[in-house]
Amino acid sequence: MTLLTFYGGVNEVGGNKILLEDKDTKIFLDFGMSFSAREKYFEEYLKPRSSNGIVDFITMRLLPDLEGVYRTDLLQKAGKKEEAPQIDAVLLSHAHAGHANYISFLHQDIPIHMGHTTYNLIKAITERAPSSIEQEILEFSEDGSKRGALKIKRKIDEFSSNEKFKIGSLEVQPIHVDHSVPGAYGFIIYTSSGPVVYTGDLRRHGTKPEMTEEFIEQAKACKPIALIAEGTRITDKPTNESEQLVFEESDKLTSSTDKTIFADFNFKDVDRVRTFYDVAKKNERKLVVRIPDCFYLKYFHQDKALDMPNFDDEDVLIFKQKMRSGTYSDSDYYGDQRFFATLPNTITADEIAKNPGKYLCALGYYSFGSLIDIQPQSGTPYIHSASEPWNEEQIIGQERVDNWLAKFGMSKHQIHCSGHAKGSDLMEIVKEIDANVLFPVHSEHPTEYARVTNKITIVEEGKTYKL
Ligand SMILES: [Zn+2]
Ligand SMILES: [Zn+2]
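Above: inputs. Below: predicted complex with zinc ion.
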């Protein structure tokens, strides 16, 4: 008998935590952070307290209340007894927080399976940000341990596309898909009842559509008994979007001005980084990156398949932001920051201001303070290369962006291509794979799929479905 229980990703984008049980084997497909649950009670300055172990997370339903799943140190902190792990493994589809971050709370003996690129990307994310309890995916500091004490490393098993492996009664086949982070996978899980397919997050219109097509082909060929499919953009209107178009529009804009270009995008999206690197190069400009983003370049560059420039590339400059003394003194920068801040290819705001037409700055909203130092000329373009705001918090954030742009007389350009398949593509994927039953996840509008299939189960959170 095979069972599925959805502890997240239900009527929401992100938070995927899907329990698959087969005979005596139990695995989770992803164990992500639920943005909607978190936003309901918390924000930047009101965080769930790590001082309370796992209690805040379970009480406020950021984590399901399950036995044999969580870290011993956090249970003890919550006054609970140690529990032997009852989960055999987690299959991680990709490095986005909505899929990966709450692995941080899992028992140290539960093996986590992920692709090599995902492993590298999580390393970069961890190194660039201050440590936090919600960001302890690869290793964690045991509660109460002294500063500098050795961290507890999780058991990480790396997989490659199409290389099958076994977990108890299951055989797992990971297959690469194209998404807005490199190293994303979908899975075919061969259970004792038949194959179960999980899409993770995917798209058909990205730079490597052949990967997604391969996944769809194989998913279809295995004649699955169940398909767990993402539906992020199921209701979006049809668009004509591609990374190539992002390049062309950004290139056109850049070649038409002798002012600095500011581009605001997510640096985890390796395709987007490459797009702006190429645009800069074609227009004889240097790509200016923030110090924290050098960690991404470092790990992307190590991954030969990604074919990316490193932070010391001749067409990359590192933006040395004004810190403490305001004089760019080496001692203003700590730790790894100092390493990057003292490299020969750094650049300051004054230098950008002197030759505005020579740079394409990957400096977004969180670097807006530096606009006061750069003093961009009126009409300087700002490219917003991310999805448009869709919730209240993001809309307020956008209004603040607009205020900054107005203050400096900058012009705003929306140039983007999404990491998720468009509605029409999602419908086709589901029709093509044609599983015995479809479980839509990672969507605010799961019922939309009923337009193309009647073999659909609208998921309820925490309810168990027999396959
Ligand atoms: Zn996602
Ligand atoms: Zn994703």
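Residues 14, 96, 98-99, 201, 442 surround zinc ion (ligand 1) (CB under 6 Å).
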